[in-house]
């Protein structure tokens, strides 16, 4: 899951609606371009330039920062999107609705295929893109004792009160609290979810914002006020790039349980240029390009051929590859019957926070 920022051909969430509407009125004579719905700082700009230089096709990056809002855009017939980065927990449901192209129609050469575990998670409708973990990001110059567990985020030290950034993604925030409690991170049990709510409710006075640190850090009202937060591997790189010269951000995988995810590249069924979109996906899947992108993102690649091209220092970095011995939960969708309670919990947390 991870994140792209300011730059040529990139649109931020605040510009998203205007940008999408503008795309609806592209003059017919304009050169063909592809529109990619993607997280912030999630693609090496050098690869974008190489693609355009090779094919003459422009790539427009439309930025999102929340999975639910991404899915709404994918489902909107008026949103001119050719491709999207979708986490494995939600890609199958979107594909089953007829919104995505079946990737069995576009087989990749063997050297461009990802590991079997990632292919199985992306299923019929996606090509594995990058993988990583959800954990804790923090400023080493502001947090005196590096965090080690979910407790350090959910029950922060007094000095961190008012400096915590969480997320408005109900699956991730509840997974963290359930992991802290030692319960299944995607439990649908109402009693366990209520226990998780109690933990998160007690944390509210310390929370500065319910938005991803990489998003909040770019807002003037929050800049330099976030010291610790819920984040993903790779976010520390983005935070360091957007922190005015500071390079103090770090990422840690909590010892009491890691959430691993894989993001998949999918082509929308309504794309007017599906073959060109598939050509772009195949371009990114080439081992040399996948390795280049992983180095830029500072995140693991899903391709073993590409992994062999990474620097050893990167493969040994615990901020990038989760340390051995930590319990692992692969991200998946929450049980459908638990969604109303989960949404009420998130709404209640935000309401309590706003009333402070």
From TrEMBL:
Keyword hit for Signal: yes
UniProt keywords, alphabetically: Signal
Keyword Signal in record: yes
Source superkingdom: Bacteria
Protein name: Spermidine/putrescine ABC transporter substrate-binding protein
One Pfam family it belongs to: SBP_bac_8
Gene3D superfamilies per record: Periplasmic binding protein-like II
CDD domains tied to this protein: PBP2_PotD_PotF_like
Annotated organism of origin: Gluconacetobacter johannae
InterPro entries attached to this UniProt entry: SBP
